[in-house]
Design goal:
With 403 residues, the protein is α+β, with helices and mostly antiparallel strands. It has 2 domains: 182 residues, Thermophilic metalloprotease-like, CATH 3.40.1830.10; 206 residues, no CATH class. The protein has an 8-stranded antiparallel beta sheet with strand order 12-11-8-6-5-16-17-18, with helices on one face. It has a 4-stranded parallel beta sheet with strand order 2-1-3-4. Helix 1 packs across helix 2, helix 5 runs parallel beside helix 7 and helix 8 packs across helix 9.
């Protein structure tokens, strides 16, 4: 993809915004010489160069690593034996154990190239490498690791979203405030606004949340010792306010009216019916078989790991982007709600992060899985909190928080 979609000034602004995200996401300040992995798709090379320069200027030691091309991924999942799929290169564990940060630049050249590959192999690779994510998670809980990510426009993403590549790039610039004189300053303002929402939600003693829209009637249980998170610097852009619920208290029907691309497959109209915390009925207008296989990846794949709301007043995203990063932060007319099936976020635990081991996670109902798949609903909706002391309160309606 031509770098002409972004001027040199815009690339610098984007890189500086990512530095804001990376430094905000980590609870401890970075030290000179800290290793930061810079992972990028080939089409994001121009942005990777700008980020590399900023990381060096901040005194860090960036480690650039290009992701597999689409053709390499097809070869890996198409030709790879089970042994090859499960092979983890020497040094991967050691790298993750010594990383201080990670910047991921997402720019897929194809969104459907894996459609002919066996989903079981894709799941096998995710399960095999789950331990690497867990290492980073533990380091993040200690304040020794931070991460951020963003997207760079590609012709394929624009095509799948029904936009021109110029329109797609314009959506990214608006969403990330690259059209502002000081994007990082604008993000600090958003951070303060969302912090006020999180504090108001945290002050409520919520027993359960009921999400009602034209096709949704879902009850989610926040669970004990939870905190609301959002605009943490992890995702650029990000406007959502979310927590990882107690998966055992999920009941009812959730419907994702927004399409989703995952592992080379396009799915739409996903409908999940939950009973006693698990998705027991799984349907989709498109890609139903793939959805069922994904939710059978492991024991936790059919359970909730995240519940999230986005206020339309914060997000400037008003188009489908065929990218979870943007679509889960959709603003539009009604804002959005999304849930994620699969892995929970440990940092939504309100207590001492370092004490949250596997047994404690299980006791509190934090879900464990190699999967984490965000499914978005953009319908007009009402979210009502049932309070532990009795009574109820509408916390979200017509795309806006009411707290």
């Amino acid at each position: 993809m031509s770098a002409s979609l972004f001027t040199a000034e815009e690339l610098e602004k984007y890189a500086r915004t990512l530095w804001w995200g990376l430094s905000t996401a980590r609870t401890k300040p970075y030290r000179p010489g800290d290793f930061v992995l810079l992972r990028f798709d080939p089409d994001a090379a121009a942005l990777a160069e700008a980020v590399y320069d900023v990381l060096l200027a901040e005194g860090l030691s960036p480690i650039p690593r290009q992701n597999l091309t689409s053709r390499m991924e097809v070869s890996f999942f198409g030709r790879g034996s089970d042994a090859q799929i499960k092979a983890v290169a020497p040094g991967e564990r050691e790298l993750m154990e010594n990383l201080s940060g990670l910047v991921s630049l997402i720019a897929p050249a194809s969104l459907t190239h894996l459609a002919g590959c066996d989903p079981a192999k894709i799941g096998m690779a995710a399960v095999t490498r789950k331990f690497l994510r867990e290492i980073m998670e533990v380091r993040e809980q200690r304040g020794d690791f931070g991460w951020t990510l963003c997207a760079y426009p590609t012709a394929e993403q624009a095509r799948c979203a029904g936009l021109s590549v110029e329109q797609y790039a314009a959506q990214i610039k608006r969403a990330c405030f690259l059209d502002a004189a000081d994007p990082a300053g604008r993000w600090r303002e958003i951070h303060a606004e969302v912090t006020a929402v999180k504090e108001a939600l945290g002050a409520l003693d919520i027993a359960s949340l009921r999400i009602e829209s034209a096709h949704c009637d879902l009850t989610v249980t926040p669970g004990a010792d939870r905190r609301w998170l959002g605009v943490s610097g992890h995702n650029i852009p990000s406007f959502e306010v979310f927590l990882s619920p107690d998966w055992r208290g999920t009941e009812g029907v959730y419907y994702a009216d927004q399409p989703s691309y995952r592992s080379g497959n396009r799915v739409s109209g996903v409908r999940l019916e939950f009973k006693a915390g698990r998705a027991v009925q799984i349907a989709a207008d498109e890609g139903a078989d793939f959805v069922r296989k994904q939710l059978a990846m492991d024991e936790g794949a059919a359970q909730l790991g995240e519940f999230s709301l986005t206020d339309r007043r914060h997000s400037r995203i008003d188009a489908f982007m065929a990218s979870t990063l943007f679509d889960e932060n959709f603003g539009g007319e009604h804002g959005n709600c999304h849930v994620a099936v699969g892995a929970s976020y440990s940092d939504t635990y309100a207590g001492d992060q370092t004490s949250l081991d596997a047994d404690k996670k299980a006791h509190l109902g934090f879900n464990d899985s190699a999967l984490h798949w965000d499914l978005v609903n953009t319908e007009d909706k009402t979210v009502t909190a049932a309070l532990k002391g009795g009574g109820s309160k509408v916390i979200y309606a017509h795309g806006e928080f009411r707290v």
